[in-house]
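From the methods appendix. Each design record in this collection lists the tokenized structure first, followed by the designed amino acid sequence. Records were kept in a plain field format so they could be parsed without special tools. The example shown here is representative of the layout used throughout.

RECORD:
FOLD TOKENS (235 positions):
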């Protein structure tokens, strides 16, 4: 029994509990999401946005994309939000949306990360209302975040312009048939980033000015995204 408990997590949502097998770091998040939605009988109008580890102790709060980082034995509480559209519907880019939608669904990063609790709370309430009404919200980047995004775009264009054989060197197979790094799927090329096993190393492009620039830009951008996610869930 002890071994079984260590290989699973106790999940709570609105008074209901269920034991779920511990995910692995290369988890298919869509499958995990559907499993939780089925276990807790979540309707189409409810979106799982994150979870709280050890809620009785007050956290930490994590975005759902970190579900695969659970190790087993944890107690977690799901964070959900009601929405008027199904969770599987991806939002249109802002340029394709009515201006009113964008304005009412957008908060500035300065407000969301403010030291003033009332300012943070108001920004969080705006995002929550946007999630309920539209199923999405926007956080307007500050100058530092925008500069990080531009560096990432430049570094990515440099990497993807390299010869095909060079790009394939930046790839590694990991557990469960998954991979990290470069991929070419006919109509699109992409670079997959995920947590890898402790013994392994991430297949960044070969050491050199371009390779180092790509690694620094990508990890920096993901750092900014993680910080936004943590602040949004906190509020």
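DESIGN:
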């Amino acid at each position: 029994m002890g071994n079984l408990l260590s290989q699973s997590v106790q999940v709570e949502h609105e008074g209901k509990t269920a034991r779920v097998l511990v995910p692995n770091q290369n988890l298919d998040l869509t499958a995990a999401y559907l499993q939780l939605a089925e276990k807790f009988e979540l309707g189409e109008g409810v979106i799982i946005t994150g979870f709280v580890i050890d809620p009785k102790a007050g956290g930490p709060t994590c975005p759902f994309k970190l579900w695969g980082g659970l190790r087993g034995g944890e107690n977690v509480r799901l964070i959900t939000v009601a929405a008027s559209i199904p969770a599987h519907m991806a939002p249109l880019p802002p340029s394709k949306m009515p201006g009113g939608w964008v304005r009412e669904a957008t908060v500035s990063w300065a407000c969301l990360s403010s030291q003033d609790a009332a300012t943070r709370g108001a920004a969080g309430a705006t995002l929550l209302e946007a999630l309920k009404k539209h199923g999405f919200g926007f956080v307007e980047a500050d100058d530092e975040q925008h500069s990080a995004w531009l560096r990432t775009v430049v570094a990515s264009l440099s990497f993807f312009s390299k010869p095909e054989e060079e790009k394939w060197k930046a790839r590694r197979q990991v557990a469960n048939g998954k991979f990290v790094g470069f991929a070419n799927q006919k109509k699109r090329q992409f670079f997959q980033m995920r947590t890898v096993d402790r013994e392994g190393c991430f297949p960044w492009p070969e050491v050199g000015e371009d390779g180092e620039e790509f690694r620094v830009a990508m990890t920096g951008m993901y750092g900014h995204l993680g910080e936004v996610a943590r602040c949004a869930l906190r509020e």
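APPENDIX NOTE: The longest helix spans residues 209-234.
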